[in-house]
Each structure stands twice: as C-alpha cells, then as structure tokens.
C-alpha cells in the first residue's frame, strides 16, 4: 500500500516536472491562433462583425468571446474554414451582421466630390487618395469594399459598384454532375 | 544519322485518329481583307499592351498600335493600313465569351506597309535583339503565346545543349505547322538558325511526328540547303501529346523539365516552327507578327489552311472553308484541348492555330457520366505521370489543398484522361475548375494580405501621430510653465506662495485669458444686408453661445 | 454542351464488365465439366439476386436504374460469388450472400466505385462465418445433376455420401487429426479429393482461370502487378516452409493451383474499386494478399484464405495508395 502511494507520488512529481519543463522550454511566443484566424478573415476591416477590424475580431474569436459567423465578406467559406481551424460547429452567417454580397469597390463621382477628406479618414486601408479641397479618387485594386467611406461623405458621391468579371478573373464552372435523381424521387 | 539518334519515350499518351489528310490537300490560301479588323491588345502571356493609337488615327500595315507593358508582354501591330475606328472592349476568342480591350480598324484597301529601317541583328547586342522581338510582337505560336524574347535567353548556370524546334503537331485535325513546313521550310530553318546564334546551343533538333513525311522531306532539304551546323530533323513516333513542349524535349533529349522550372536551367529550350518563321520574318524581312497560318477543318466542305491577318473575324474563316449547315458548335484549337467559341464575331488572335466546325456526328455528345471505378486507365495515359482519378476526387470535393499536394498544377490539360475514361467523366473540366478556383483564392489572399499590411501601417501611423502630438503638447506645456514661473518670479511678490503652489492654475488662467482675447477679436463675417429673420437667427445663436461660454467659465473657475 | 476533349476513345464501364465476364467463361466451363451443373444453377441464382438487389437499392437511392443496371458490375459480383461458394450450398446461402454483397458491401457505402471492400468477398466472408459447415461441403466425385440441384433446393444432406472437403480442407484436417504421424504425401494419397498437384480437377480450373486472366491482361483491363505479386507472395511464402519440412507443408505449386488462388489473382484482387491503384501499391497490396492467404490456409480454421486476405488488404488500400504515389513528370529523382 505504502509503496503504491510512493510510486504514484514520485510518478506525479516526475510528470509534473516534465510538464513544467516543457511549458517553459516550448513556450509559444505571441498567440499563433489569433494569427491563424486573422489569416482566414478577408481583411476588409469593415467592422460588420461588431469589432473595429479583422484583428480585434480574430482576437475575440480566439478568446471565445465572439461567434465565428459574424463576418459577411468572408462568407460561408470563411465560416467553414474557421469552424475547421477551431474545431467548432459550423453555423450559417448571422444575418444581424449583414449578408454575403458579391465583391464591390467604392467609386467616387468625381464631379460631385468637394474634397472634404472625410472618406480618406474613414478608409481603413488607405485606398483613397486626395487632399483637402482636392478631388479624391479610389485606387480600385486596393479597395476592399468595406463601405466605410460611403456614410461619411457629406455629398453622397460614393457608390459601391460590383466588379464585373473579365478575361483574367473569369473562372471555369464546376462541372455539372449528371447523376440526377430520378423523377419519382423528385416528385416525392 | 537519324537512325543513330536515341529517342526517349514519355509516359502515357493516346493515339486518336489523326484526321489530318483533308486539310493538307490544298496549299495555304490567303484570306481577303475583312471589312473591319478587331485587333485584341491582350494576345500573349503577361501584361496587356498599352494602346498607342486613338480613334480617328491613320495606321499603316505593321505599325505598332499597342506597346508592350513591361518586359513580360509583347507589342501588337496593325494588320493593314486604314483608320482606327475605336479602342474599346470587344468580345474575345476565349471560353468565357467576355470582352477585352481591342483596336478596331477599318482597312483602306491599299495595304500600305509602314516604313521601317532594317534591323541589323547580327551586329546588335543580344538584349537589343530581344527588345526588337518584343516590339515586333513575336510570341509562341504553338498555342501558349508566351513572349518569345523571354525564352531566347540561355540559362546563366547551364550552357545551352539543345534547341528544340517543335514541328510535332500531335493534335488531331491541326495541320498549320505541317503546311508551313511543307511550303516555307527555308524561313523556318533560317529562323531556327537565328535562334541558334542567339542561344548558342550544341545542337538544334527539329522534331516532327512520323505522320508528316512531306514536311520531314521539305525540312530536311531546307536544312541541307542552309548548311547549318548541328541542325537536324528528327522524326518522332506519332503519339498524342508528343507535341507538348515538355514531352517533345523528353522524347528528343531524355530530359524531363519539371513544372515551375525553366527549361534553360536544364540546357534546353523549345520553340514552335511557326515561331521560328515569325522570328525570321521579324528580323530579316522587317515584318512584325501580323499574320499566322490557321487550319480550318472539321465539319466544313473545304478544309484547308489559310494565312490570316491577326484581327480577322472568325466568321470569315468558316465562310471561306464553307462550314456545313449542321454545324452546331465552333471550336478554337484542336479536339483534345480546344474550347468552344462563344461568338464568331471574335477575331483571330496570335494563339489561333486551328478552327473546327463541329457537328453532333463529328463530335458526338459524351454518354452520361458514371461513377469513377478507379480503373486507373487515366493514370496509364497521363503524360505528366499524375494520378488523375485522385485529382478528380479532390477537385470534385473542392479539396484544393489536397489537389495541389497531388500536383494538380503539373497537369497540362492535354485531355488524355478524359479521352480514355470508361466512366466518361469530364476529368479535365474538374481540373480546370479547381485550378481557376485556386487562382482566384490566391488573388484574394494576395489582396487580403495587402489590405492587412496597409491597415496595420495606418494604425501605426495613427499611433505615431498621437505620440507626436502628445510630445508637442508636452513641450509646449513645459515652455509655458517656464514662462509662468519666470513671470511669477519677476512680478508677483505679493502672493508668491500661492502662485508657486499652483503653477498649473496660473497656466490655465493664462490660456483662458488668451482664448477670451481671441474670441473678442473675432469679428463675424458676411453680416451685410441680412434680412430681419436672419438677424434674429444670429442673435439667438449668439445668445446660446454666450450662455455656453458662461457655463464653461463657471465650470473652469475652481470654487474658492 | 461539353468542353474539350471533344473526341473520346470507345470505352465504357459496361464494356469493361462484359470483358471480365467473358474472361470468366473458360473457368466456368471447366468447373461445370468437372463438378457438374450445380455451379450454373448458382450463377443464375446469384445473378438474379444481384440484379434485383441492385435495382432495389438504386431505386431507394434515387438513381436511374436502367443505366446503372446495364453497367454489369452487379453481375460480375454475382458470378464471383457463385464461383467462390461451393456449388451445392442451399439456394438461400447464395441468395443471402449476394444480397449482402450488393446491399451492404456495395450500396450502403455509396454504390459503384465507392465500396472500400470487395463486395463478393464480403458476401463470402459473412456466409462462411455464419454457416461454416454448409460453406465447406463440396460435391463428391460423380454427383449427378439431379442430386446437385436437389441439394441446392433443400434435399436432405447425407453428408459423407454426397459431399467431400476441398483439397485444402482435407489436407489441413488430415494433418491436424494425426498430427504426429500424418504427412502431406500420406494425406494426399489417402483421399480422393486430391489430384496430381492439388485438388482433383482443380489444376484444370486453375488453368482456365489463367487463360481468362491472360485475356484481361491482353485487353489491358488489368496490369501484371497484382496477379504476379499475389501469386509470388503466396508461392514465396510457401517455399521456405516446404523446403524445410515437405512432410508437413504443402508445396508452392499446391497453393498456386489449389482453392481460389488464380481466381483471386486475376479476378478478385484486381477489382480496381477496392484495390490499390498505384504500380508500387498494387505490388504491396497483392503480395500482402498472397502472404495472408498462405497463413490462413496453413494455420487458420477456414477452407480458403483468399477472401479474408483480400478484405484485410482492402483495409490498407488508402494508406498504401497514399504512400506509393508515383513521382510526377520531372520529379523522378526527388527534385
């Protein structure tokens, strides 16, 4: 009886020491989980999730303070990737935060723009160039389509335009899977 | 000599019916100038050339109308003389059927060539020759349309061993290289000799499949006549896709050039016969690439090859070859790798090697798809040594990571796997789908990474601004404090203790004093000729402001 | 409308399956010639059951029955079941085994192309575990057609008069019963179940299977890897034991010609759906079947080991395939 106790105690101590040593030796710098989550998020920095940017949302997810279905630009695929990474249950996009839309970019009507710089300050990714009292314009390839510049514009000259497909961005479609259910099944 | 050469095999491959006889019975014909030329600007791999002409401009045949955008690009030229009608998006010969930028030209019928100084390439530096070829718009005419000037550079570490001229032309129906070799062998051989001069390989091998004896004979005669040392015509066994650049290099030299590497790193390079001819035309005839040979075959009454100016509407070629009435689709390229043309208004491009008219009898619709039974026939015929059925499972399940692990991008989309699949699965469609999805994701990833970088830079900038402002403020405060202390030390002997005890209060009071003085100094503007109502508004606002000021003052003055 | 390639080689799943069935015909003919027409009855029973089960499952899964029934895969499964079951088993064993193969082993896993286990072998395994005695009775020499059909449809079984064990079974039983004195030669000499090499008549059936297998090879429906590796795995495992102790271990030739070795090598292990697909993987997979077969035959309790060996190696297939991916073009030297 006594030997058993001693053996267990010694075993516990040894394992505890090993664990302690490992935690010191293999200490993870920073929080790679936040980085990994952030890598999945679309970086629109739009704030639709309720956080001031993608990184804060990633941090909140990592801490378990936010659901994974709050990012409309990331869409269904983004949610699935997050669910995969975190081992959480997949959930459809929470419609409180918006709905999945085709990617659009902001366009400034340059005839109307008064050069107030408010959109410059609103743009989280510095995709708008201009100066006070000068016309502003959106650098289209840099625009993430976050829509944050639309509301501040005092003259409502910013609109969101869906980017049309071109020869370079055109994609081959998923081949039609011809194993169709029989008609009886459809009727049922 | 040829009997002594050891040829190598490549894995897989298929032997579809060649169907090449019909279009080689007649010599190459010229196509009349069309009513309108639509010259696409983007015709090669790389950047879209910048248009050099505006609507209304007069152009001449061979005049540059699009300048190469950066080094990975090639110029575009006017196919004839005439007037530029528009520079606008036009429908392209592309599976998407989408429009791309193009220059629309109305020919004046004179076909005046533009004057150009002869280019003495023998005395020019290699870099100058390459720049000249870029500006002459020479690209690979085998179908990949990769700018040729980029390929004409020997590897830095590996001396060039073999320059391969690809006259294999393995795909059924296509005979444009065959006819070019039969009729213009001298030009091809001279072009190959020029490339040899530029790259200095030990040997130049012209590979031709053994189902083209006339082309072989013509090329052999031309090589002999030209007397180029180290150049040899090599007959290779007919097997699709022996005309793939990597497969032909493998057959002739035994070297396998892996995906994503440069063949010059292995001491070999491969050009199409048409490209060799275009290089000769550009350097010795001074004629940029404005025309090419196009095979028109399939369900047509008169299949043959045409010399066509780039920009000619495709419909005109099918008219010339007399497409039969039961034609239900038009295909650009061969039956193994081509694609259905969405619209015959699209123009001939540098990549257009073959046009096929298809009927249900000629290209019957495939039987319904069955499940994959993993029979492995696709793996047996895959010239890239892939496991196509595994790629199919992954692509079908949208498992792009796994598909890439199984070397999806080594797939050359030759179609052998679909050709033999007993379950009639459109395997290549799955690979095309998976590849374009992966490319789209990579684009998204790149733009997300860019957005993150810029967002973080912005946050850092905001932080820095804040710190700078705080530092400035601190400096100002320190300066003001000093001033106050000096003032107190000089004048306020009456209550030195109080002031010294609370220098902050003194500062605040000084600041408030300044602000008050400023307010009082400020005069309202635009007050002439106001209506009574406006006057009333203003006095109301003034009253509110006064009230606010008093309240603020009361708050700021600490209770005694 | 489809995309390229627009031309297709003439090939279809139905053609593949019909060729497999054709390749089985010589084996069936010799089998019937030696053992009588019981097998033909079993083939009819199994085929009808398989088609009925296939049709029912396709309907239940909402697939077009016509197209999939025509693919012939169910008939191949049925024929393999009829060929591996003893020809005089009661009809309900054949029907049950076939139904299990089609319903459970094939369709519950997703139907054609999706089954991880060889359906015929799964059916065989279930039946031999459930009814070991009935599944081990082979017709005795000279059993008339009427007697065989009677047995299939429920006649009383006077065991010793009408049935016999297979050569594999007899050898093992003989060796086990008189463990001290029996030898291979003694057992073989004493029982009518044995012929010149292995079981009586089995040499000829094996030769007919071999002929069918060579036809499949010539038609490029199978590659040489699986048959060769399976037979080599079996023979090379048997060889050292036989050399060391020929009195107690059967010769490699006995193993090659006995039981379902050749049927397994050319028709069962080569099932592409449940088998390995890479060249190296096929070698490992088939050699594993040969090895396990020898162990089951020599030390196990069942008359033949091909079925269990195939099922065991089926389990390993995904791993084998993953680890034996051939190098792609240009990466053969590990670049």
Describe the structure.
The complex is a heterotrimer of chains A (188), B (560) and C (335). Chain A is mainly alpha-helical. Among the domains of chain A are: 32-97, Electron transport complex subunit B, putative Fe-S cluster (3-methyladenine DNA Glycosylase II, Chain A, domain 3, Orthogonal Bundle), CATH 1.10.15.40; 104-162, 2-Layer Sandwich (Alpha-Beta Plaits). Chain A contains six helices and four strands. In chain A, β2 (128-129) and β3 form a beta hairpin. In chain A, α2 (32-40) packs across α3. The longest helix of chain A has 24 residues, at 2-25. The termini of chain A are far apart. The model of chain A is unreliable at 178-188 (pLDDT under 50). The model of chain B is unreliable at 556-560 (pLDDT under 50). Chain B has 560 residues and is of the alpha/beta class. Chain B has helices spanning 126-135, 148-151, 176-183, 185-199, 213-226, 245-253, 273-284, 314-321, 377-381, 388-396, 400-405, 416-420, 427-490, 496-501, 503-521, 532-556, and strands spanning 29-30, 37-40, 50-51, 58-59, 64-67, 76-77, 82-91, 99-107, 162-167, 203-209, 231-236, 268-272, 291-298, 304-309, 329-332, 339-340, 354-358. Chain B has a six-stranded mixed beta sheet, with helices on both faces. Chain B has a four-stranded antiparallel beta sheet with strand order 2-8-7-4, with no helix packed on it. Chain B contains 16 helices and 17 strands. The relative contact order of chain B is 0.10. Among the domains of chain B are: 117-287, Rossmann fold (3-Layer(aba) Sandwich); 372-491, Fumarate Reductase Iron-sulfur Protein, Chain B, domain 2 (Orthogonal Bundle), CATH 1.10.1060. In chain B, β15 and β16 (339-340) form a beta hairpin. By secondary structure, chain C is an all-alpha fold. Chain C has a domain at 12-164. A two-stranded antiparallel sheet of chain C has the order 1-2. In chain C, α5 packs across α6 (119-130). Chain C is globular. At the A-C interface, loops of A face loops of C.
């Amino acid at each position: 009886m006594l030997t058993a106790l001693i053996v267990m105690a010694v075993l516990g101590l040894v394992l505890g020491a090993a664990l302690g040593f490992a935690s010191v030796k293999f200490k993870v710098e920073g929080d790679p989980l936040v980085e990994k989550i952030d890598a999945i998020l679309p970086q629109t920095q739009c704030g639709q999730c309720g956080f001031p940017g993608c990184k804060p949302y990633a941090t909140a997810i990592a801490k378990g303070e936010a659901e994974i279905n709050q990012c409309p630009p990331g869409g269904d695929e983004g949610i699935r990737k997050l669910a995969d990474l975190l081992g959480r249950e997949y959930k459809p996009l929470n419609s409180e935060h918006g709905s999945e839309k085709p990617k659009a970019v902001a366009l400034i009507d340059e005839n109307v723009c008064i050069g107030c710089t408010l959109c410059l300050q609103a743009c989280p990714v510095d995709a708008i160039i201009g100066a006070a009292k000068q016309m502003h314009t959106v650098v289209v390839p840099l625009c993430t389509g976050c829509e944050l510049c639309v509301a501040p514009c005092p003259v409502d000259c910013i609109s969101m335009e869906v980017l049309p497909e071109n020869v370079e961005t055109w994609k081959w479609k998923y081949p039609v899977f011809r194993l169709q259910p029989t008609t009886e099944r459809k009727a049922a | 000599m040829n009997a002594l050469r050891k040829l190598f095999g490549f894995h897989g491959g298929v032997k579809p019916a060649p169907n090449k006889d019909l279009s080689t019975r007649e010599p190459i014909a010229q196509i009349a100038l069309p009513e309108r030329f639509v010259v696409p600007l983007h015709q090669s791999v790389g950047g879209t050339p910048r248009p050099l002409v505006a609507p209304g401009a007069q152009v001449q045949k061979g005049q540059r109308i699009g300048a190469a955008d950066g080094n990975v690009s090639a110029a575009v030229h006017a196919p004839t003389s005439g007037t530029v009608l528009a520079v606008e998006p036009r429908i392209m010969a592309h599976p998407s059927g989408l429009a791309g930028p193009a220059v629309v030209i109305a020919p004046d019928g004179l076909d005046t060539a533009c004057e150009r100084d002869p280019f003495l390439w023998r005395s020019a530096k290699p870099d100058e020759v390459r720049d000249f070829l870029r500006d002459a718009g020479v690209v690979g005419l085998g179908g990949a349309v990769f700018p040729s000037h980029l390929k004409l550079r020997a590897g830095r570490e590996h001396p060039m061993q073999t320059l391969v001229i690809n006259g294999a032309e393995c795909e059924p129906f296509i005979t444009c290289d065959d006819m070019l070799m039969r009729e213009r062998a001298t030009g091809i051989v001279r072009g190959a000799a020029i490339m040899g001069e530029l790259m200095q390989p030990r040997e130049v091998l012209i590979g031709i499949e053994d189902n083209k004896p006339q082309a072989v004979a013509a090329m052999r005669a031309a090589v002999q006549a030209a007397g180029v040392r180290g150049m040899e015509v090599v007959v290779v066994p007919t097997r699709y896709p022996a005309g793939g650049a990597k497969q032909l290099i493998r057959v002739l030299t035994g070297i396998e050039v892996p995906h994503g590497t440069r063949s010059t790193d292995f001491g070999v390079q491969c050009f199409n016969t048409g490209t060799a001819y275009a290089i000769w035309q550009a350097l010795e005839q001074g004629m940029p690439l404005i025309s090419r040979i196009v095979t028109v075959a399939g369900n047509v009454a008169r299949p043959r090859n045409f010399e066509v100016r780039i920009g000619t509407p495709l419909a005109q070629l099918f008219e010339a070859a007399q497409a039969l009435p039961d034609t239900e689709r038009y295909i650009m390229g061969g039956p193994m790798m081509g694609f259905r043309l969405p619209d015959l208004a699209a123009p001939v491009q540098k990549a257009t090697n073959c046009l096929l008219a298809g009927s249900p009898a000629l290209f019957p619709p495939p039987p319904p798809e069955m499940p994959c039974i993993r029979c492995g026939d696709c793996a047996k015929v895959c010239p890239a040594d892939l496991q196509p059925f595994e790629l199919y499972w992954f692509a079908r399940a949208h498992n792009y990571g796994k598909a890439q692990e199984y070397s999806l991008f080594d797939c050359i989309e030759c179609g052998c796997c679909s050709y033999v699949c007993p379950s009639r699965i459109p395997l290549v469609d799955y690979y095309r789908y998976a590849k374009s999805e992966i490319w789209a994701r990579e684009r998204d990833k790149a733009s997300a990474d860019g957005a993150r970088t810029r967002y973080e830079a912005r946050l850092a900038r905001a932080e820095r601004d804040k710190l700078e402002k705080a530092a400035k403020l601190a400096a100002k405060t320190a300066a003001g404090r000093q001033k106050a202390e000096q003032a107190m030390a000089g004048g306020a002997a009456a209550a030195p203790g109080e002031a010294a005890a609370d220098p902050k209060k003194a500062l605040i009071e000084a600041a408030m004093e300044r602000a008050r003085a400023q307010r009082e100094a400020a005069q309202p503007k635009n007050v002439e000729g106001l209506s009574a109502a406006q006057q009333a508004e203003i006095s109301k606002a003034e009253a509110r402001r006064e009230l606010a000021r008093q309240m603020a003052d009361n708050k700021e003055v600490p209770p005694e | 409308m489809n995309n390229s390639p627009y031309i297709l080689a003439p090939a279809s799943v139905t053609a593949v399956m019909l060729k497999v069935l054709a390749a089985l015909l010589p084996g069936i003919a010799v089998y019937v010639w030696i053992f009588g027409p019981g097998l033909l009855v079993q083939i009819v029973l199994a085929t009808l059951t398989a088609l009925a089960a296939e049709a029912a499952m396709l309907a239940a899964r909402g697939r077009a029955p016509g197209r999939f029934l025509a693919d012939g895969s169910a008939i191949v499964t049925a024929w393999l079941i009829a060929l591996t079951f003893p020809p005089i088993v009661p009809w309900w064993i054949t029907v049950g085994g076939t139904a299990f193969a089609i319903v459970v082993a094939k369709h519950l896993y997703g139907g054609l192309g999706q089954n991880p286990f060889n359906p015929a072998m799964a059916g065989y395994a279930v039946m031999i575990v459930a009814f070991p005695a009935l599944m081990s009775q082979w017709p005795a020499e000279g059993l008339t057609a009427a007697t065989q059909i009677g047995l299939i449809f429920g006649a009383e079984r006077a065991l010793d008069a009408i049935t016999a064990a297979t050569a594999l079974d007899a050898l093992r039983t003989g060796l086990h019963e008189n463990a001290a004195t029996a030898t291979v030669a003694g057992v073989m000499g004493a029982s009518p179940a044995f012929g010149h090499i292995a079981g009586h008549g089995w040499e000829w059936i094996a030769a007919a299977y071999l002929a069918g297998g060579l036809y499949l090879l010539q038609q490029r429906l199978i590659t040489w890897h699986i048959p060769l590796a399976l037979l080599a795995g079996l023979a090379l495992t048997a060889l050292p034991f036989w050399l060391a102790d020929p009195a107690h271990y059967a010769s490699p030739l006995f193993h090659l010609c006995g039981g379902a070795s050749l049927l397994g090598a050319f028709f069962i292990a080569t099932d592409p759906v449940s088998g390995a697909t890479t060249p190296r993987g096929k070698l490992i997979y088939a050699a594993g079947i040969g090895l396990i077969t020898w162990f089951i035959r020599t030390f196990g309790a069942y008359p033949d080991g091909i079925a269990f060996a195939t099922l065991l190696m089926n389990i390993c297939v995904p791993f084998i395939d993953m680890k034996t991916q051939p190098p792609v073009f240009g990466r053969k030297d590990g670049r």
